[in-house]
Amino acid sequence: MGLLIYLDGKMLPESEAKVSVFDHGLLYGDGVFEGIRAYHGLVFKLDEHVRRLYRSAATILLKIPIPPEEMALRILETLRANNLRDAYIRVVVTRGKGDLGLDPNKCARATYFIIASRIQLYPPEFYEKGIEIITVPTRRNGVEALNPAIKSLNYLNNILAKIEGLNAGVHEALMLNQEGLVLECTGDNIFLVRGRDLVTPPIYLGVLDGITRQVVLGLADAAGLQPRETPFTRHELFNADEVFMTGTAAEIVAVSKIDGRVIGSGRPGPMTQKLLDRFRELTRKEGTPIHE
Ligand code: PMP
Q: Which of 124, 196, 238, 292 is the least buried, fewest Cβ under 10 Å from its Cβ?
């Protein structure tokens, strides 16, 4: 049986949930999206995700047809309609149907839809052993061209990097900026632990303002770490005690090797483990209930 999809104000069977071939989300990647997770009946950081969606839309001058409060309610409704308690939720807003030109003014109304489905978990060995990543030649989009803080439907930059990683036999790839500073992975933020410092690149350099990233920065204190948002190069990563990635799907995953250099002990480090334990504790008890 297919899923029920919330599309432009209606709950529709998957087979009927269709968007136009003239939709500018499809023709040009003109739109924004979110990936959200629900854990045993609680949607984790729902308001934060909804707010980021509306910030992304504001920057690209895209008017979402419903207010944020209603979007949050529709997300919960879609989860209930599909009888899901543990889920991955994709919210997409496109510029809508237009003509073959770029002009967004030709699109009368944004298209929006919500997909709630079962979550594809990473294999347990990623968490037990950590994963190997490489730096790829494709640089992250420049802030002054297409700011990575906008979670836009135009993910070709990340997809090219992902392909380069996959071709080299790794599951995630590290992206740098034009100056060679570390930014983020194709679908995850990156952190290093050095002594008592917990370091991640600042948003202004051109990374997504990850929700998991924010939660982890907030957990630093309780883990006895000092959170810092400062630029760094691969050299700092290679010589860190621990490196890990964060994201809604991945949660917190240790990085065991980067470009052939073993990181720390080559196994998930104690701080990474502590942060993951605390993160999972939060996902167990915090969140917006799907059922009142
Ligand atoms: N960076 C990029 C490029 C991403 O696509 C994502 C998540 N999809 C992240 C970082 C992690 O963000 P979050 O913790 O909000 O999932």
A: 292
